[in-house]
Fold this sequence. Notes:
Layout: E1 9-10, H1 11-35, H2 41-54, E2 58-61, E3 65-71, E4 74-79, E5 83-86, E6 91-97, E7 101-104, E8 107-110, E9 113-114, E10 120-122, E11 125-128, E12 131-134, E13 140-151, H3 154-159, H4 164-182, H5 199-214, E14 219-231, H6 233-273, H7 280-295
Antiparallel strand pairs: 1-5, 2-5, 3-4, 3-6, 7-13, 8-11, 9-10, 12-13, 13-14
Helix pairs in contact: 1-2, 4-5, 6-7
Amino acid sequence: MDDRELRLGSGWMGLAWVLAGLAAEVGMIVLAARWREPQLLWAIIPFAFVWLVSLFGFIVNGPNQARVVQLFGTYVGTVRETGFFYGNPFYWRTRVSLRVRTFETGLQKTDEKKDAHGNVTAAATQRRQPLKVNDADGTPIEIAAVVVWKVVNPAGAVFNVDDYEGYVETQADAALRALASRYHYDAPAGDAHSLRGHVEEVAAQLKQDIQARMAPAGVEMLEARISYLAYAPEIAAAMLQRQQAGAIVAARAQIVAGAVGIVEHALEALEQKQVLELDGERRAAMVSNLLVVLCGHSMPQPVLNTGTLYA
C-alpha cells in the first residue's frame, strides 16, 4: 500500500476549543441549577457526550515516529510531523517507529519471571543460537548475521503484514539460510563463492536478498553482515585438521620454493667466481645436501671432512 502524508490541525487550537466547550458545559449546568429548568438537561447531556468524545482527538507525535490513521476501516493517511495535533476523534491511530533498529539472527531471549508477589524469580536472559545449515558443499555450518533496518513505509508495515517486526526477523533467517546454501564455507584463492574469504561480497549479497523479501513490509535494509561463522561441532575437529594440513602443505611448498632459489643462486655464484668445478654427480650431491639442510624440520648436524674434497 502506498503511503501518503496526513496533515492535521494544531493541537493547541483544539485544546482551546475543548476548554471553551468545557466552559460552555459548566455555564449551562450553572444556569440550569439557578433557573431550575430541568429541560436544559436535554442540551447538557448530549453536549457533555460530545465534549467527552472530542477529548480523543489529540495526537502527540514524537521524533522518528509515525501515526497510521484510519477512519472506520479506511486508510486516511500517515502523520509524520513531530508535534501536538488535533484531528477527528474517531481516527484510529497506529504508532510506528521510524528509528533505525538492529537485531542478530538466532538470538534467543527469555523474559524475566515473577512470582505471585511480584518478586523476580528468574532474570531476563539471552543466548546466541546460530542457524545450522549446509553450505554449497553440503558441509554443516553454523552462521548468524546482524541486520540493521528501519521502516520507510508505515502504511505498508501496518496493512501488508501481520507483524512487521516478526516478519523482518523471520525473512532475515530465511534469506541467511538460502545464502549459506549457495556459498562454500571456504574455497581456494580466486573462488568468488566463499563465506570466509569474501566477507564484503557476501554481506552485499545478503543485504540484497533480505531487501528483496522486505518490499511488502515497507522496510529498508541498511546493513546486513555475518557476525558468526563456524563449522558445526560434529565436524569441527575434522575440518580443523584439514585446515592444519592445508597450512602445512602451503608452508612446505613455500619453503621448498625458497630453498630451490637459494640453491640455484649458490651454484651460479660458485660458477661465476670459479671457486671450484663440479661434475654432474658432485653437483647433484651438493644440490641434494643443500635441499636437505634448507628443507629439514630440525637443525642439521655438520660433518667435517678431514680428508680430500672427494674423499
